[in-house]
Amino acid sequence: MKPLTPFLLLASLSYADQTGSLSGSVRTREGAPLPHLVLMVSGPAGNRPVVTGLEGRYRAEGLPPGDYTVNIDQPGFALDSPARADVGDGPASLDLVVSHVPVREQVVVSATRSEVPLSTLGIAVGVLDRQRIADRQASALLPLLQDLPGVSVARTGPPGAQGSTFVRGGASNSARVLVDGVPANEPGGAYNFGTALPLELERVEVVRGAASSLYGTDALAGVIHVVTRRADEGERAGVHAEAEGGSFDWWRGAGGASGRSGPFDWNAGLARLETDNETPNSAFAETAGALSAGASLGEATALRLTFRGENTDAGTPGQTAFGRPDEDASFERDAFVTGARLRRGGDRMAHELRVGYAKTAELSLDPLDSGPFTPSYGGITGAFELSDFPNPAGFQNDTRRLSAGYQLEAQAGRRHLVTAGVELEHETGELGSRAEPLLSPERTNAGLYLQDQVVLGDSVFLTAGGRLEKNDSFGTRAVPRAAVAWRARGGGDALTVRASAGAGIKEPTFFESFGVSFFAEGNPDLKPERSHTFDVGAEQRLLRGRLRLEATLYHHDYLDQIAFTVVDFTTFQGSYVNVGHTRARGVEVAAEAAPAARVRLHAAYTYLDGRVLVSTSDFDPVFAVGQPLLRRPKHQFAFSGTAGTERFDVGATVVAVGRRADSDFAGLGLTENEGYVRVDGRARLHLGHGLEAFVVGENLFDRDYQEALGYPALGRSVRGGLRFRTGPRTP
Questions:
Q1: CATH class of the domain whose range is 225-231+241-371+386-725
Q2: Domain 19-100 in CATH: superfamily?
Q3: Residue 209: which residues within 8 A CB-CB, separation 6 or more?
Q4: What is the pLDDT of residues 376-385, one digit of tens each?
Q5: Which pTM value belongs to this model?
Q6: What pLDDT digit, counting tens, does each position of 299-312 carry?
Q7: Strand (E) positions, 198-329?
């Protein structure tokens, strides 16, 4: 037998030389790549798991010749038909296009700074996609955010008034706000959602949990990312227009264009809104625009330009629930966010350059003295008289943020997807009363981040990373984050268990760091506000993709919160110090169902146990140790449903907000705000030839309630109109 040995060796080497490979990409029907997925390649080589990498690319090597199938076991996605390929002794290719099951899987960007299917993350993210936004037909963006778990809102009156968001018990300035990837917060974290319209929105993503490991300052409680709609793959050029009118002298007109032609795509919209908002001196007018335009500069290089802006004027009558309105006070706001992104992709490595600019110019006016009044409410009379403090010159709050960054994404081995980047932000402003010299501070922040996403086996997805942040105000800090998702059961009834933990930081405001007023002098030695957050949860899919259930337990600690303090009681000189500590823990539950064609149901419930552990105020009992957190309800529930046919659909939304701590800030001694239930409804009728009629009702049962004490919300409002579109119809 020994003479046969060389022949057997040659035969085995020849067989080894005959192995081939199979490669390709995995994308959704909309063209979004799907990295970080586990595929199963089955054939003569047996069953071999393969992980998709950059741009959703995959590659299986060393395959004996034969017929192979590629399957995907990913919650929320399905193949239209079995994917088959004939592999010979060389390279073969097979691209996969997956469809959405009735309750679709969301592909999110904010959680990892790259497109990733949500169920492969251990991070809690809520998404309002284009379909859901269109179904809702909300008059403003702020009510939409109430539909998501972990998010509460408060607006000081009707549309156009100051609007705040609270993510997982954080303060109103504790979430990083991105507009098309561009940081948009004012320095110190504030962002006014009260004037934001749902104009040309693709989706809104809310990351719940500290995310400073990727985004640096402001991401104490999470991230809110507003994304402008872009033209779909294969979308032909078209225009759209709509007009509506209704209660409170409401009038809104909007129009735009979108499409693709060769290497270019565009989506642009413009809107004008006017309303008197019922209460004297609460009229609101806004002109807003949005743009997303892209160009393919080659096979792997793309450029995208974005813009969102608004010009608003609003009367500010004050706390009219407690007394006479201020007939002449007003608020003017000009704000825009613009950005450019250049990306060059590849099978193993991708480079991205970003630049963005966010500007907010706000002017608060009160030219006349409206006279004093004694507040009263519900049979309670204030202990002292309140005075108007006119400021004919106005109070100005102009801030600007210029940002730039470079990001590298690389596939390391077959199971690691590494993201690294560097960012630079320069903040400037002109703030204060125009009757005095304005404060003109500036601050530069730099950040370096690194993140690894790795698949362990075929069912465990690990994300870990951190950021080193250097801030002109507080110096250098390191912030980590880690998350894991375990696919405990696959198939149509997939069960995913997840957990995450992270740290957050937030810089002081310009006034807190640089203020020059004798009564509120800035403190250049302030530390950053900090957060420690963790959560654990599970997602269960049932009924072959028609039902998705999600539950999350969370715990957040907010530390070193900045507070004003009097440093000399003889002169009442004041400054700012890091003293506050609050805690937020609770449960978030979400459900989504598509029991039949054209029937969509969403529900969300949030339980929040929030407490003050170390007070930020020695004077106001609302901020005393042990008190619940201001304007953050203990219980909140939202349900929204839409059903219909090809021509006609109807929908309703119910929002129930429980009692919450608040303060009248007017000497009445009120420390709690009543809960409320608001019911909204809508209907749409497709008339043909691109024309659609619609009617929307908000607060249909005309409930009296206040999101912030003293500021009544609008009563029942009904509006209706017509919408016209050429090209693809609004979903």
A1: mainly beta
A2: Immunoglobulins (2.60.40.10)
A3: 123, 124, 168, 221, 222, 500, 502, 533, 534, 535, 554, 556
A4: 999 999 988 9
A5: 0.94
A6: 889 999 999 999 99
A7: 201-208, 222-228, 238-246, 250-261, 264-275, 284-296, 301-315
